[in-house]
Each structure stands twice: as structure tokens, then as C-alpha cells.
Amino acid sequence: MDYIIMAKELLVLYPIVEPEIQFIRHNENMTFKVTDKLSNKNYLLRIHKPAIEGFFGLQHTIEGLKAEIEILKKLGCEELLHVQLPVENRFGEYITQYKFDNYDEPCYATVLEWIDGEILTSKEEITEEIAFKLGQNLALFHKCLEELTPSDNFVRPIYNIDKIDIAIEELKYCVEAELFSIERYNIIKDVLISVKNQMNELKLRNNAFGVIHADIQLGNIVISENNPCIIDLGFCGFGYYLFDLGSAATIFPSNLRQNFLQGYASKAYFSFEDLRYIEGQIFMDIFMSYTLFMRDNQRNSWIKTHAIKTCDTLCRDFLEGKEVFYSM
């Protein structure tokens, strides 16, 4: 079924006049830019049907989507950040269930407000000012959601030690599929066990764990009026704040990472003595991403070259106690 046809069918259920539809991509969701020709206002339509099995998670369930709506509304009511607020359908609901002819099961869809601006696509586009401001905005994101009072059925992914144990088991498939050798698998396993030990230490801290974005990458940052806005809460869930600091730091060239961390520290607690923990969270993020793509032969080839570089240099140095933060 054509993506545009699917979007048109769904948008009949929304108060958007003469929608002009532009397909964006199909990864963890099908996404579209929708323009209301009457008001000239833009929206983001998401059909929550992942392109590959590895992308499916709690975030695609009705409970997970309701929780995401809670998060977006909480961020919006604080008015500290530019947020993609959810839009109601014609029935006054934020989540639409719809049965397409080409799918056996009904799909869920949501519409969010669009943030005008340019998506960050390259490290070369980032300035010291943008790096510092993104650090500030990430700190505000975390602080806003500290005050979130979840509903009784609030369900989102949890990025904890159990997640690492699952990844260690699942990554054995990469050896079977010859994406990397058993020797490199053992290196990855040793790193993840070390990260588990770090997380046991982090457990003893106050205010270190909460709602995190969990997917901060170049394509999820929109520069709007020189303000880096964090979008796409698809993987948002519970984890250590240092996880977000790690994934966000890697979008910057090494020379701008300190600017980013200083920006964060200007709005929330952060110590540069925690770089070792951030390194561990980056490794956790990397190896969990392998599990998302590894079973898709059309999208998993990058793992081969990435694992060689990561295991043979960064992992070995990390296990030897060397600092790798500025090399990742």
C-alpha cells in the first residue's frame, strides 16, 4: 500500500483542511510532514508500525503511546522547551486506531505539532553556541520530567541492567550471522559486564535515574531560531541521565563535547569526574543499537566494520582503564 494513501486515509480523522502530505521515512515509525493548506500550519503524522521487527517495543503499544503523550504534555506545560505537542483527532483523542487493508492488525497513529527549522545532519554544522545550548536544553528536559507524576498504567522502555543482560544474550546472533567473531563478542560481553558494575554503583546515587530521551542523534535535533530543539521521543523511557549525556555527546566533534557538558552543568548537576560512567553508557547505547539492526540483512552490514573499530581500539582501551570519551 502506498504511504501517501495510508496517510490520506488517516488524516480524514483529523481536523486538518486539505492536507498536503510529504513522506519522510519509515524506520521505527512511518513519518510524514503534513501541511494544512487553510492555516498553513505544519504537523508530524506518525503511523506506529516499525519497518523491521527489531524496532518494535513497548513504545509501539497503546500503553506506551499513552505514556509518551503524558511526557509530551508535561514538557509542554512547563513552557521551558519547544516541544512537539500532541494534536487531538476529531473524536478528542490523541491516539488513533485504524485498520489498513494491507495489515492484519490495526495500527496506531498520532499527530504532533511541527517544529519549524533545520534538522541537524552533520557534525560540521555544530557551533560552540549550539553545543552549549543543547546541553542546557537536555538538562531542562531531565529537570522537567523529574516532576512527572505517571498515571497508573504508565509504560515505557527501561534502560537498566536487565536491558544489558538481554543484549548480551541477543548479540550471540551476530556471531552466528558472521557480523563479528566470537573473540569480538567476548570483548563486547566484557565491556557490558563492566557497564553493569558501573550501573550498580550509580544505583546508590540520588537523582541519577529518571525519564530520559534515549535516542539523541543528529536527526533528532532541529535548529529553530538558533535553538537546538530535541524531537522524537519514540525511544524515551527510564534510565540514567548519563545515558543521554553519552549519546548526545557523540554527535559533537571531540573539541565541542566539553561545551555541551558545560551547558548541561549550567542547568543541572554534573561532574566531569563522571566521564568514565558516560563512556559506559555510550557502549551500552552502541551495542543495544546492534540488536535493533542485526537481523535485517538489508540494514546490518555497517555492524561488521563498526564492531572491528569499536572492539579493537575503544573497547580494549576502556577495559584497560584508559579514557575513551573524546575518541568515541
Sum up the structure in keywords:
alpha+beta; 2 domains; 3-stranded antiparallel beta sheet; 16% strand
Structure, explained:
- By secondary structure, the chain is an alpha+beta fold.
- The protein folds into two domains: 3-114, Phosphorylase Kinase, domain 1 (2-Layer Sandwich); 123-327, Alpha-Beta Complex (Aminoglycoside 3'-phosphotransferase, Chain: A, domain 2).
- The chain is 41% helix and 16% strand.
- It has ten helices and eleven strands.
- Strands 1, 2, 3, 4, 5 and 6 form a six-stranded antiparallel sheet that branches. Strands 7-9-10 form a three-stranded antiparallel sheet.
- A hairpin with a 2-residue loop joins strand 9 (221-224) and strand 10.
- The mean pLDDT is 95.
In short, what is this structure?
This protein has 328 residues and is an alpha+beta fold. The protein has helices spanning 3-11, 62-78, 128-146, 161-170, 172-176, 182-202, 241-249, 257-265, 275-293, 302-319; strands at 19-26, 30-36, 41-47, 86-87, 96-98, 107-113, 118-119, 209-212, 221-224, 227-230, 237-240.
